[in-house]
Amino acid sequence: MARKRKPLWGLSTKKLGRLPHVFSRVLQLPFPADTDVSVQEAPHCFRFVAESPAAGQVEAHIVEIHPGVTKVVVRETGSTALNDLHLDVWRIRLPESTRPELATAVLAAGELVVTVPKTQDVWAAVPSFCSIATNLHC
């Protein structure tokens, strides 16, 4: 007669509904993972600022990896390497309150500035004086 296996150390086994390391919204910048990036939150957006050696123009591309899983990839204009697998790049998980499809990227004074707007539901919950107090306008 076959014996039923017991879980190791009395722990129960549970199947994952989805992989824990897959997030629904991610921002990927064209820098090494250890680059210093300033992350600023305002009532209407998140802003990411980093020094950039790039010259020219940049664009924020939206890549749908899987239904419901979106990645914002920032690249120089004209770059065709959207689907290349880059392991050592700067990434951050974006909260559910963001609108990655409206993300913008701009090079200004040697800095890359990426702005990711928030949903309007979040705007209503924040007093209007917050953008003045934080000195960050989106």
TrEMBL record:
The name this protein goes by in its record: SHSP domain-containing protein
Protein source organism: Glycine soja
Lineage: Eukaryota, Viridiplantae, Streptophyta, Embryophyta, Tracheophyta
